[in-house]
Amino acid sequence: xxxxxxxxxxxxxxxxEFRRVIYTAKHxxxxxxxxxxxxxxxxxxxxx
Length: 48
Hints:
Elements: H1 8-14, E1 19-24, E2 29-33, H2 36-47
Antiparallel strand pairs: 1-2
């Protein structure tokens, strides 16, 4: 059986792209998304 086997929460926290496809199957797609606010907030936290 195929599937996605990674820590989605960790990937989501580290995601700095607006839309990132992390898994694609025949009839579904797993996508991480971030809004502009969360990207800017992460950059502010990284600067500290």
